[in-house]
Amino acid sequence: MQGTTVVKQKSEKPKKKRSIMSKAIIDVLNKERNQLIMEKERLEKVIVPDDGSYLEIKKNKGKYVQYYKCSKKGNSMASAKTFIRKSDLDIAKQLAQSEFDRKLYADINTRFNRLDSLLSYYSNNRISDLYSKLSPERRALIESTYLDDENYIKQWQELYANKDDEYISKYPIETQYYTEKGEHVRSKSEMIIADKLSKAGVPYVYEPACDLNKKGLHPDFAVLNITTRETYFYEHFGMMDKPEYATAAIRKIAKYRELGYEYGQKLLFTFETGGDGLSIKDLKIIIEKYLRN
């Protein structure tokens, strides 16, 4: 799609204060949780059960280190001591390692349980919920940057919804393809993409009005990751087996890159040729990796 048009934005971009912070914290906590799981599994393979034995270390006259294997006597505070010779130093090492492993395992379990509790709280109690749970009448009286998802999506769609009449007039849609929501689109693949996004619960605007229009770029879709509240522009390049089209597509991607749009960072795209159509598998990966995480 070609053309250059200046488009006035309808409203300010909705703020995304809540989700970015929450997502970053949850990602860090999940990474730590996975590391704790790995360490728990390692310790469970080597840990020695507590049989009441422990290591005692003393310095004889403050100079010579002496090791003792101690054994608790029932429920009493008293214990039996056995001197460990230098030739049996492996016994001291095993006792020290076993005690450390058990303490480490207990500490990891504590950390794991507290992390799970924190993750559960962050996942199930979003800041925006405080606002969204209010009655409509009360919300109308309050100013808050922590918009609930419904109102954020509404503002986001309004931001990109203005159609570029000059562009549409120059490049009218003359196909028979309509999405399940009744939108007239330019190709069968764009229809499939729109319907897959809709089915996955991903907010989108077809041929969005945006600042990129001023640079001669007209993305096929603006799509929103509602969890992170990040906006991506999605291009589908549908005739890559045609040399002129492929050259134009490469130049368009280069233009996006010049403007700071890299794949996976504000920009998504798919390809197809006459022999290889739109990959539904690739589309699902894009949705799960970038738009629903």
Mean pLDDT: 88
Q: From the alpha-carbon coordinates, what is the Rg to the nearest angstrom?
A: 31 Å
The second-level CATH architecture of the largest domain is 3-Layer(aba) Sandwich
Discrete helix count? 9
Annotated CATH topology of the largest domain: Trna Endonuclease, Chain: A, domain 1
Residues in helices, as a percent range: 40-55%
End-to-end span in angstroms? 30 Å
Strand order of the largest sheet: 4-5-6-8-7
Task: Tell me the total number of β-strands.
Answer: 8
- Which residues form runs of ≥5 with pLDDT under 50? 1-10
Q: Outline, from the CA principal axes?
A: elongated
Query: How many independent structural domains?
Result: 2
> What portion of the residues fall into strands of 2 or more residues?
15-25%
Largest sheet: 5 strands, mixed
How does this structure look, described?
By secondary structure, the protein is α/β, with parallel strands linked by helices. The chain has two domains: 28-128, no CATH class; 163-291, Trna Endonuclease, Chain: A, domain 1 (3-Layer(aba) Sandwich). It is 46% helix and 16% strand. It has helices at 17-46, 89-124, 127-132, 136-139, 149-161, 165-170, 188-199, 243-258, 280-291; strands at residues 53-60, 64-72, 79-84, 204-206, 221-225, 230-237, 262-263, 266-271. Strands 4-5-6-8-7 form a five-stranded mixed beta sheet, sandwiched between helices. A hairpin with a 3-residue loop joins strand 1 (53-60) and strand 2 (64-72). Helix 1 packs antiparallel against helix 2 (89-124). The longest helix has 36 residues, at 89-124. It is elongated.
